[in-house]
Amino acid sequence: MAHGVNAAFLLLASSSPLLVLQLLLVSTSCALLLRSARGEDLLTNGFTAVELAEAQFKVQKPYDVPLTERYEFVDGVRRMWVYATDHPITTAHPGGPRTETKIELIYSSGVWQFEGYGYIPYGTSGASVMQIFGAAEHATTLMLHVYDGNLTYYHDDTRVVDAGVYDRWFRLNVVHDVAASNVTVFVDGEHRLTVPGRGGDSHYFKFGVYGQTKNGMSHLMESWWRDVKVFTKC
Ligand SMILES: *[C@@H]1O[C@H](CO)[C@@H](O)[C@H](O)[C@H]1NC(C)=O
Ligand SMILES: *[C@@H]1O[C@H](CO)[C@@H](O)[C@H](O)[C@H]1NC(C)=O
């Protein structure tokens, strides 16, 4: 690898300084992903924003309804909704009703952070609104559910991440340290939860609404998201 880069470097050194610079950047896998540091913010301090293309925001919705009947993206806000009676994302999928956005950025090591501003309209209950996909013996490493206005760690009503989440914008930050195997959740910049990781070596973030069978779903489940970003430390 180093040899190839050096050879190419020599080849290009005389022709274009810009090309050489690009080559040096892509030779570091991290630099390829990264845009700029955002040093001012304590939470994101030490993290670097990952450049995400719109094509990396992949919406999953009931297989038999058009996207526009479960999703809209207007003025920077992604609005997702689903009904308890909706079908899963494919005929073969065993899961419940969902309209979720998957961020197609798969990671297996390092420290990753999701940041987004969420809004859950009054009445939405029995839904996961954010998750870290991938784990060793489960499908997920983290799920944040909403039940009657409480945002909880999965369906554990003793681990309340926010006790009044309806009808307001909240800032959600979720940090996943893969090697240390811990997950930390912040709401509006305040530390609310640290839980162990659950293994696995292929993860990504999702947000939206995914109906949960444990405590019953409201007929309509809905969440809105804006300014969704992913940060990493390499
Ligand atoms: C919501 O959380 C608060 C604070 O933990 C708790 O007192 C309340 O019972 C919870 N409500 C529901 C519906 O679980
Ligand atoms: C996660 O684990 C690492 C390594 O043990 C530790 O440095 C870090 O403080 C932990 N994070 C939290 C939020 O507990």
TrEMBL record:
Q: Which keywords appear in this protein's UniProt record, sorted alphabetically? A: Signal
Family matches, as SUPFAM superfamilies: Concanavalin A-like lectins/glucanases (SSF49899)
In terms of InterPro entries, this protein maps to: Alginate_lyase_2 (IPR014895), ConA-like_dom_sf (IPR013320)
The Alginate lyase domain sits at 55-231
Keyword Heme attached = no
* Stated name of the protein: Alginate lyase 2 domain-containing protein
Q: From which residue to which does the signal peptide run?
A: 1-39
